From TrEMBL:
The keyword Cell membrane applies. It is a multi-pass membrane protein. It comes from Pseudomonas cucumis. PANTHER family: INTEGRAL MEMBRANE PROTEIN-RELATED, PILUS ASSEMBLE PROTEIN. It comes from the Bacteria. Pfam families: T2SSF. Keywords: Cell membrane, Membrane, Transmembrane, Transmembrane helix. This is Type II secretion system F family protein. It is found in: Cell membrane. Residues 180-307 form the Type II secretion system protein GspF domain. Its main location: membrane. InterPro entries: T2SS_GspF_dom (IPR018076). The chain crosses the membrane at residues 20-42, 113-134, 140-161, 291-316.
Length: 321
């Protein structure tokens, strides 16, 4: 308390004004805390409101098991609905980012924005609690720490989702060659394209779960009445991979013009192997450039220390005498 009162005194330069500001801030914090607790205990725990929230999410009355969301999730969704961006372009970009990261829930956008809004507030509150424990802390340093906590809370969810997207796309990209080879074998053995996708999804359900889920979703969409071309285009949108986009374009042309799907898959498999070989050669050619920085900062100082160190010691001893 004394620390916060001292901060207000430094800002205002008047002790009485600092006390009034301190009392007002504490009163506002208490009112906000009471309102938050009332919303948690009364609003979300009300069975009628909870049932309405579940109906809006698409849950039926019997889905009260593991799929039903909890009170905290409903609260985050409400916060996200209030403060989420209303711009169509930004919402679409956020939805695409979450889809590529593996979050396909209808409430994923609301949850994402709710976490990005609430996490900075939580970290700022924790920073204000920790600041009095730091001795000899100036006002500028304290404000810098608070702003840093707010920035970390705002940027951490976006960085986490981006890293998750990159990791998921990396796993899908690594599993795609095996799926392509299995598709070639299945189509050449006489299976149709939907049955081929279903068989490949079954075979890869143990080793590559994410790609198997995506292929199973494509098969479910085809069974629901969506055309094979449209289902494959949605697969390319969900994954965000150029390799899948190229395969979808070739299969769409093959289905449209009536050419052999097996020949198309075989040609694309050969092209994909060539591209993988070129990518590996390109990565190998970049190794020499990437090794320059470790050599300069790690190996060369040790080399110069061993090579020139004894001579420098001898020079210093000679001129020191």
């Amino acid at each position: 308390m004394d620390f916060l009162l001292g901060l207000f005194s430094r800002v205002t330069g008047n002790e009485e004004m600092a006390r009034l500001l301190f009392i007002g801030a504490m009163s506002l914090s208490a009112v906000l805390a009471i309102i938050t607790v009332m919303l948690l205990l009364l609003g979300l725990q009300d069975p009628v409101r909870r049932r309405l929230a579940l109906i809006k999410r698409g849950h039926s009355g019997s889905s009260v098991g593991q799929d039903a969301p909890g009170n905290l999730q409903l609260l985050l969704e409400r916060v996200g609905q209030r403060f989420a961006s209303t711009e169509e372009g930004q919402t679409s970009a956020t939805q695409t980012l979450l889809m590529h990261a593996g979050y396909r829930s209808p409430s994923a956008i609301q949850m994402y924005w709710a976490v990005r809004l609430l996490l900075p507030l939580i970290l700022v509150g924790l920073a204000l609690l920790v600041l009095p424990l730091i001795p000899r802390l100036s006002l500028i340093t304290g404000l810098s720490l608070v702003l840093m906590a707010a920035a970390i809370g705002w940027l951490a969810p976006a960085l986490y989702v981006t890293k998750r997207k990159q990791a998921r796309q990396g796993r899908l990209r690594a599993a795609f060659p095996d799926a392509l080879d299995l598709m070639v074998v299945c189509v050449e053995s006489g299976l149709a394209l939907p049955l081929t996708i279903e068989r490949v999804a079954e075979e890869m359900s143990v080793s590559q779960v994410e790609l198997a889920e995506e292929l199973a979703l494509v098969n479910a969409q085809i069974r629901a009445g969506i055309s094979s071309t449209e289902a494959l285009k949605q697969l390319a949108v969900r994954t965000g991979l150029e390799d899948v986009q190229g395969l979808v374009s070739l299969l769409a042309q093959s289905i449209r013009f009536g050419t052999s799907v097996a020949d198309t898959l075989r040609i694309y498999a050969d092209e994909f192997r060539d591209r993988r070989t070129q990518a590996a050669e390109e990565a190998g050619a970049k190794i020499g450039t990437k090794l320059v920085f470790p050599l300069i900062f790690c190996l060369w100082p040790s080399f110069f220390l061993i090579a020139i160190g004894p001579a420098m010691i001898g020079v210093l001893k000679t001129f020191g005498k």
